[in-house]
TrEMBL record:
Residues 1-21 form the signal peptide. This is OprO/OprP family phosphate-selective porin. Residues 25-59 form a coiled coil. Keywords: Coiled coil, Signal. The keyword Manganese does not apply. InterPro entries: Porin_dom_sf, Porin_O/P. The lineage of its organism: Bacteria, Pseudomonadati, Pseudomonadota, Gammaproteobacteria, Alteromonadales. The keyword NAD does not apply. It holds the Pfam family Porin_O_P.
Length: 393
């Protein structure tokens, strides 16, 4: 545009009837040439500025439109328990920020990613404190193809319903069910290698070779499965564990899964006791039709050890059934019956029953308030209620 204006001015000037002297014409020509150079330089700089603006805009658009390769998430639970033990005439009235968990993940490529989970239990940890700081997951996952995915590192064992999915907004009840606490020792993680195989849509297989349990062989917790979790903290790996799971989800609303684990010695070669070969078998069903869901799970340990048998700990088993009804996005009710026995090898009746009935209120799909009534029977005699708040993001 500036060049057009200058050209018009020149045409008008030379078309003018005004007659200039020769020396004035030369001076005017020099001025015009200098102005033309200035104009050319200005246009060059303008072109460079426009290109830089375009490149900057492209970079901004790319960053705004792209997804970050690193993700952060987490969950937490605050519990209030008011349970009366009718055998000892004692009351448990406790408020506890049970879990505070942070997730960190990073996607290196579309096929290779990292995932981790750090947990603070019971609000504070240290000498003489109730809590612990734990690394619950830290593994590399890689997709070899559409059917085969591998893991290496520290990860959750593929067993049960809660062990891999236990964020508070995903289950009913303030506390996790006792069968998946004492028989399947959720949350249960080990270090090692794992493979997930998708045989066909809705049918998958999981296999894992990991560190194993290391149960105490004396004291009140002798051969207790939950007490054998090493949490991959300088874990004794003399005897590894081998896990396999099959899961079927081809029918909408239905999940059926079964897991088996074998370990040659859950005492990790402890001196003075028999080798304790152990096998865990577990299965569960989840079926949802419209707003109604029913869950059922069974788990059984068989420990081949004379020392465990003498304590009645050679067999440990449990099951639960849980119907629930979700009225809408905000309200749901449930009832759950549990029965479990960590000394099922005894001739005595040592099984414990526990019934919970309650409600979940989702303030948001990832924020939930919970309340339930609890009654314990069998070898225990206790009742009371629980209140809870949970979140995830």
């Amino acid at each position: 545009m500036r060049k057009t204006i200058l050209a018009s001015a020149l045409i008008a000037l030379f078309a003018s009837p005004v007659v200039l002297a020769a020396n004035e014409t030369d001076e005017l020509r020099k001025v015009i040439e200098q102005q033309q150079k200035v104009l050319n330089e200005l246009e060059r700089r303008l072109d460079e500025t426009e290109k830089r603006v375009e490149r900057t805009a492209d970079v901004v658009d790319e960053r705004v439109g792209s997804k970050s390769a690193t993700t952060i998430g987490g969950y937490g639970e605050l519990h209030y328990n008011n349970i009366s033990n009718n055998q000892t005439n004692t009351n448990k009235k406790e408020l506890d920020f049970h879990r505070f968990v942070l997730f960190f993940g990073h996607e290196f490529t579309e096929k290779t990613r990292f995932f981790s989970e750090i947990e603070l239990e019971h609000s504070i940890s240290g000498d003489g404190k109730n809590g612990e700081v734990e690394l619950e997951q830290a593994y590399i996952e890689h997709d070899f193809n559409q059917m085969l995915t591998g893991k290496a590192g520290l990860f959750l064992i593929p067993v049960g319903i809660l062990n891999e999915t236990h964020e508070p907004a995903t289950f009913y009840g303030v506390e996790r069910n006792p069968v998946e606490k004492y028989i399947i020792p959720s949350t249960w993680w080990e270090g090692g290698l794992a493979l997930n195989i998708i045989a066909m849509p809705g049918l998958s297989f999981d296999t894992a070779i990991t560190s194993g349990l290391n149960v105490p062989t004396s004291g009140d917790n002798a051969y207790n499965i939950r007490s054998g979790r090493q949490k991959v903290s300088e874990a004794n790996a003399s005897d590894l564990a081998y896990t396999a799971r099959i899961k079927y989800t081809a029918i909408p609303g239905l999940e059926i899964a079964a897991t088996a684990q074998y370990q040659t010695d859950i005492t990790q070669g402890a001196v003075g006791v028999d080798t304790a070969q152990a096998v865990l078998v577990s299965g569960h069903v989840i079926y949802t039709i419209q707003k109604f869901t029913i869950k059922a799970l069974i788990a059984n340990w068989n420990i081949d050890s004379a020392d465990a048998e003498a304590l009645g700990k050679d067999k440990q088993d449990g099951y639960y059934i849980e119907p629930s009804y979700r009225f809408n996005d905000s309200f749901g009710i449930f009832a759950r019956y549990n029965e479990y026995d960590t000394q099922a090898g005894n001739n005595n009746d040592t099984s414990i029953t526990q019934t919970n009935v309650g409600i979940n209120y989702w303030l948001h799909e990832n924020v939930v308030f919970k309340a339930d009534y609890e009654n314990q029977g069998g070898a225990n005699d206790a009742d009371g209620f629980n209140l809870g708040l949970g979140y995830q993001f």
